[in-house]
Amino acid sequence: MSRIPRVACCLAALLAAPTLAADKVSDGVVKIGVLTDMTGYYSDLAGPGSVLAARMAVEDFGGKVLGKPIQLVSADHQLKADVASNTARKWFDQEQVDVIADLVSSSTAGAVMPVAAEKKRITLLSGPGTTAFTGEKCTAYNVHWTYNNWALANGTGREVVRQGGDTWFFVTADYIFGRSLEEDTSKVVKAAGGKVLGFARHPSPGTTDFSSYLLQAQSSGAKIVGLANAGADTVNCIKQANEFGVTPKQSLAGLLVFITDVHSLGLDTAKGMYLTTAFYWDLNDDTRKWSQRFFEKHKKMPTMVQAGVYSSIMHYLKAVQAAGTDDADAVMAKMKATPVNDFFAKNARIGPDGLLRHDMYLARVKAPGASKKPWDYYEIVKTIPAAEAFPTVEQQACPLAKK
Amino acid sequence: MSAPALRRLAWAAMVLLGLAAPYLVYPVFAMNVLCLALFASAFNLLLGYAGLLSFGHAAFLGAAAYVTGITLRTWGLPTELGVLAGTAVATLLGLVFGALAIRRSGIYFAMITLGFAQLVYFLVVQLPWTGGEDGLQGIPRGKALGLLALDGPVTTYYFVYVAFLAGFWLIQRAIHSPFGHVLRAIRENEPRALSLGYDVAHYKLLAFVLSAALSGLAGSLKAVVLQFASLSDVHWHRSGEVVLMTLLGGMGTVLGPSVGALLVVTLENYLADVGSWVTVITGAVFVACVLAFRRGIVGEVRALVRRSFIGGKP
Amino acid sequence: MQALFGQLLVGLINGSFYALLSLGLAIIFGLLNVVNFAHGAQYMMGAFAAWMAATYLGIGYFWALLLVPAAMGLVGVAVERLLLRRLYGLDNLYGLLLTFGLTLIAEGLFHQAYGNSGSTYPVPAALRGGVNLGFMYLPIYRAWVVVVSVVVCTASWFVIERTKLGAYLRAGTENPRLLQAFGVNVPLMFTITYGFGVALAAFAGVMAAPVYQVTPLMGSSLIMVVFAVVVIGGMGSIAGSIFTGLGIGLVEGLTRYLYPEASSVVVFVVMALVLLVRPAGLFGRQR
After folding, report:
1. What is the distance between the alpha carbons of residues A252 and C171, in angstroms, rounded to a whole number?
2. What would you report as the CA-atom Rg of chain A, rounded to the nearest whole angstrom?
3. Taking the CB of the first residue and of the last residue of chain C, which one, N or C, has fewer CB atoms within 10 A?
4. Residues of chain A with CATH 3.40.50.2300
5. Mean pLDDT for the stretch of residues C179-195
6. What is the ipTM of this complex?
7. For residue A23, what pLDDT is reported?
8. Residue B20: inside a domain, yes or no?
9. C-alpha distance from A303 to closest chain B C-alpha (Å)
């Protein structure tokens, strides 16, 4: 990205902010909605933990911004796009919600984003992965906070090839998310000098037995079996890979794996697997301190999604404070103008496309013997710097960023 | 007060309530209720009058929603053509599934329809143009008859309301026509209807196709209202939900399914925050209906009215 | 060729679960005329019960294989006595609807308590490891699943076809009133039969716990296939349900080899084809 547009952008933001900031908070309250999966496949990695993270952010901020109270509401979208969009509409039309956070699963986020843009309210995506949310589908009122599929494909694909895993076979969930993850990763693997030997696509949701797909992976002789699926599918795959003796002869690369998945699988089953993550509780003192507080309340360590929810809401509230209003345009400008510096991200910036570019981490799941304490699951193989971890604005094709 | 007078009163109340609804409640909610009420009424035509329990009606609702979505979004056709296309596909599906399913009755029929609905579900999951788990999003509402832009919720509401009334009227006509009486005769005693010379299979198939077509209409409208079609429209939970609506409101009553739809949608709307307790409560309502409350709300009310006002035999 | 054998064997393993579950459904349907929609939920509860027994009480796999079906059988007895019983004499669709409601309650409750990502149940130490068959690596536990389910199915078939109790059962399927007139306690038979069907589902659940993730929804995805299996086999036919279950497993395996995209719909396509040719199902009688 050339310097001039960025400077121009910041200038425009600085100029625009004060005119719009009529020193007001609409309806006398700043209302944050956490729309997440409270009961479905993603309830462990987002769900109640995301709501807790949001509540911690509000409490840490002091419960008030610009002298007005901050309120938190939450709802279960049940992983259904229709429920998500209805809830968002209701929140915006009737309950004066200013911002919606989390939105785990791409289908629900994709349904809510246009509604929010139409009503000029902000979305802070922490749960979903679709890269196009800051590409073709980008909106002016959206920030994609935690991870996207591009980052996962690149992080895991490129780094695993560099570590010597140069032949791949994919086990793919046969729907858009899985197929795009598989295609993205294939490209990356090939670009890094690796070879893709084949793929097996399983119906999803609904598959519980992966043995036949794993058999194909096994007979392909690939060094790496890439799992382009998520949630229960991934967990079942890993478990059965272990059973059918796929591992440890071949290594697994989970393209979307959360620490709660590893926790429910157990280290003995998951050991040796590569994965890319945006956050790990045991990275440094800051992450440990925050995660410990989270753990005391939730009894589970935070996932990257939950950490992202906290970080994104904190950044939003700071921007409201600085902008002197909860007007969405002014707050968005402020959020984009201010770098993010907290336990989650260091010196990270939100691009004009709405993507927060921060460091990612390639991790390998520890063997049971190497785990020294509870939740000591990952060995960080490499820190992927923000510039390499995420696509550039040019690669993203977001119409807003072209101007 | 006589029974026809009461019925007219109920009708007038319903029409007035429907007209006022977008000013009383949130319009999108009201439209959702209308779509599902039409769906449940179409389903009731089959269950309440022909005595056939389909456990796969989501297939018609969902397939129509997807077809409407594709015609409006990908091909950019006018709104009413999209709705017609969705309804037509549901009708066709109804013809094919119906022709196979009505060869068996009772429980077999239920399971066969469930199997077909699963087939549709997996097809929708896997076919390239349905958007898989993301569904079809951002379906444009377009203009009604090329004139009336359906961008405001209230305008859209009246568009849906008119379509709902048309569908509802058709069901009502079918029920009170000779066709409806033959259906009831088949439900009560199939061998007797057969021996009276009625082509039972033919009547059943017709009822099935009509029910599928109107379920399709409901699905198409739903796609226009909510601007997307999603997997939950073809999932078997949806098929179960419509059974619940009909049972709760009162199967075999004209108004029952709509009352049931209103209650179920309200329940889901207000209990969305309590997580999986919604599933538990839905299940409990189901069990309660089956065990103690088989006539449903409208059925119970009707029985009460008959006892206290008319004094005749129930 | 290697891949074909591998897929067929995997199909056979899946088929054993189909057979176990459709057997239970068929027995219940045969006598009670009730489609037990809750069969999938009862299978799930079996798996959860095994996991809970291991986690909270330290009960191992083999004991669970005995105790869990017994306990779940008692749950089934309670359900029949308290709920299902009230619906006899009504249209048998109400039985389907009641068990559907029970399914929602069970799934919702387990969801609320254990979330959705599920819990892991270890493969028992005695059955770990595997054998290399040349064309595939066969985990011993999977082989155990096939053998045990074939044994259980054969034993159930033997009881029903060759013992006095089975004779009563078959007679009850034909004409419960006549059986009652002969002085057989038919209501008790109904209770026992339902309890036994539920116990079979729970047994399958315990068998499945070490292979699949134990989740609240594990039953509902499986039960849809099993329903189609039962329609194909012809409901109420004991032997039919066993053969069809194994057969559909093989057909799925074959499809995975030939045209993997169709593997999840093939069972429903087969169902449609069978209905075209034999509306009563492969082993059923037209009623």
Report:
1. 55
2. 21
3. N
4. 3-147+284-354, 150-277+360-385
5. 88
6. 0.84
7. 53
8. no
9. 20
